[in-house]
């Protein structure tokens, strides 16, 4: 059961605001949505352990599926998941098992330790999967040795290529939340939204919260309001006087 509190909002109307509860997205292999923009990356993960190179790099924007593919790799290979807190100990242990290093461009990993792991992989001692948002040239690396070794790894990009992939992402996110949404509403969203995987996640979350607050299913009105609220957030404006019913 979803806990709710009642609080006054604009126009002196009462609405129910849901307290936040986490939902768990599925990272199962069968739930990964394969499309034109991620097929090569998906194929690379599926080809493990028969990789021609020991190090693989996945590059893509937030919510593009990097973490999903990384978890598929970890499940398939029983890889150890490296964190900024554990990388030094793992590097010093000089092991041989597969490793996963996520967000390598953002989390401030110890570079000598990362250099050591890359060397272990390139000597054929272990498999290493790296994920990042940006191209290597934009990584805040201080040492050229790390950069040069990462550049040797084949990089696989994840991108959203068409409306079908965006629609599939909406369907998966709503499915993770156990919400049924009319395909016409998803089509309405895809035709009007900012085109990125991250925006799919933001809109799905916003619509879920609006629907819970009002005790209704996700409707076209709620989809229109979510789109307008997201546009206002990007513009730094306010939606105080916006009436979602006017879009019906």
UniProtKB/TrEMBL annotation:
<protein>
    <recommendedName>
        <fullName>Chromosomal replication initiator protein DnaA domain-containing protein</fullName>
    </recommendedName>
</protein>
<dbReference type="InterPro" id="IPR027417">
    <property type="entry name" value="P-loop_NTPase"/>
</dbReference>
């Amino acid at each position: 059961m979803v806990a709710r509190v009642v609080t006054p909002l604009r126009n002196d109307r009462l609405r129910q605001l849901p307290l936040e509860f986490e939902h768990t997205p599925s990272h199962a292999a069968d739930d990964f949505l394969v499309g034109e923009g991620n097929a090569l990356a998906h194929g690379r993960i599926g080809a493990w352990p028969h990789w021609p190179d020991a190090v693989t790099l996945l590059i893509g924007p937030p919510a593009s599926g990097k973490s999903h593919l990384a978890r598929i790799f970890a499940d398939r290979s029983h890889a150890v998941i490296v964190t900024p807190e554990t990388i030094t100990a793992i590097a010093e242990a000089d092991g041989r098992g597969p490793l996963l290093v996520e967000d390598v461009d953002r989390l401030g990993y110890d570079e000598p330790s990362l250099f050591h792991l890359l060397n272990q992989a390139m000597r054929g001692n272990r498999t290493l999967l790296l994920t990042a948002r940006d191209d290597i040239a934009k990584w805040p690396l201080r040492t050229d040795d790390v950069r040069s070794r990462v550049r040797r790894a084949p990089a696989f990009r994840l991108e959203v290529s068409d409306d079908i992939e965006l629609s599939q992402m909406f369907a998966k996110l709503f499915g993770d939340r156990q919400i049924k949404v009319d395909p016409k509403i998803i089509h309405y969203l895809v035709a009007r939204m900012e085109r990125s995987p991250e925006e799919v996640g933001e809109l799905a979350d916003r619509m879920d919260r609006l629907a819970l607050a009002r005790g209704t299913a996700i409707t076209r009105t709620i989809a229109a309001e979510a789109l307008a609220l997201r546009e206002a957030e990007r513009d730094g404006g306010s939606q105080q006087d916006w009436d979602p019913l006017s879009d019906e």
